[in-house]
Write the structure tokens for this entry.
Amino acid sequence: MSVSTHAVKCARCKCVLETLPDAKPEPRAACPQCGEGDTLENVRREVGEYIQEHISKTIHGALVDGVRGSKNLKVTSDFHPKGGHRFIVDLEPR
């Protein structure tokens, strides 16, 4: 198993967040360009939700592609992402 590191970014500006360890009462992270930020705990939670949505979208796409052209199987549902994430990571391979 390989391990990779991905920078957490502001969804609006695509800038890497900066941590603000001196913030009281909890450490925070914020976008250096627009100032969007939150506690590290909330940033981690939102990034986790973004990753779950990305995985769901990828699996749905694979299932749709897998049954395309089949006379016996048909996918009748669409994937509707929740969206609205303030913080993201680049997950697409380059």
